[in-house]
Amino acid sequence: MEINKLKHVHFVGIKGVGMTALAVYACEMGKTVTGSDVAEEFVTDEALKVLNITVFEEFNGSKYQKLAGKYKPDELLVVTTGAHQGFNNPEVKFAQGKRLEVVSHAEALGILSRDKTVIAVAGTHGKTTTTAMIAHCLTKSGNDPSYLVGVGSIPTLPHPGHHGKSRLLIVEADEYVTDPQTDQTPRFHWLKPQILVLTSVEHDHPDVYPDLESVIEAFKKLVDKVPSDGTIIACIDNPGVEQVLKGNKAKIVWYGYSPRADYRITNYSSNLSPNGRLTQEFSVEHQGHELFQADLSISGRHNAVNALASIIASVEVGVPWTQAPSYLAGFNGTGRRFELKNQLGKTILYDDYAHHPTEIKAVLAMAKELYPEHHIVAIFQPHTYSRTKALFYDFTRSFMDADEVYILDIFASAREKPDPSVSSRELAKEVDKHGIVAKYTPELEKLVELVKSKLGKKQVIITMGAGDVYKLHSKLT
User: Fold this and answer.
1) In the listed set 64, 79, 107, which residue is the last one of a domain according to the structure?
2) Among 77, 107, 137, where does a domain finish?
3) Which of 210, 221, 151 is nearest to 185 (CA)?
4) Among 169, 306, 375, 448, whose Cα sits 20 to 30 Å from the Cα of 32?
């Protein structure tokens, strides 16, 4: 494919966070961009609207078919995603019938990154925030990097995607498969990173990875793509990361809280100012000496290691140690990552994408650390039957820092069939056995009324999940 000849890019399932970021990137390249998706509200709607990107709210409608008939095969690229039948989507079939080029989102990332110096961020947790942090830091340093972040919004950057003038491309590297129906290639295998950040490796996506060993094998193949003159920036606190890199001969820079880290976090503290601003402070030691101190506008021990990884990555491409922490100081998070939604009386409302037991623990630990005198209420929507079933035991023990838990029905993926052997009702029962007040609440409207009756009290209410649980906030206010 010759990118220069390409005039138009059409995205099948454009409202997905990864697809929207890539649509923004293509738009800034000067390509005409359109997309199709379902009509319901998504967190990416605003970004698409700002750029005046046309979205057809149906698949393979007359407008799309008319568009597809206008171009020669090398002028229109169709990008698809596994979320809407992948290569079995009717729009894809129509394009193939017209001999138009059709690629997956993951392959499109690989194509567009060929002539770039790629900084890829991979990991079961933390990759979105870390990718956004690197993009923020390098943008503030004047590098004008390209970046692709799988999130609805980044408050300190114009959009979740950007086509910059420099050769640098920061990209979130996803371990899920290209298309669960037709292509089991892990999505990040389409990338060839010069710098690879590994935040964590744990068992997830059980619909395509039966166990931790299969996840580790996928990450090992990604690591092997880093060239001999490249760099791997790895979190030493995560056992899975160490397993992936065991015996690897590449240049590895270890970071974390462990005394074995090349760059070690010490003196960590988090704060909540009277005006509600979240902050954290920590020092970083290298070879037994303090290298710098960081003062950030986000909180959480997990975000301290994300920040350190992003600073190291920025230094690898030329940003001085003396400046990188200050560039990052203004970063204040991304959409759906402990995102403050509202404050009503003494009730503070947050939303978070947490959908894995480790993520839930981190979010609730941060909430308890910041609000020790508040009643902590977690509203959780499990994401996919397969994940809920495979990690059921871990989920039951992930709410220990909450005082009260409400569990909605499982948000099913279009990729899987309902599994009657696992349910939110049973999950709530098991969580309750650990001394946490947990209730199964299948009807969202009743839950909204229940939460409304509690508003104003001294409490923190956090919605969590990768589905549409975030919509509860608009219903509350």
Assistant:
1) 107
2) 107
3) 221
4) 169
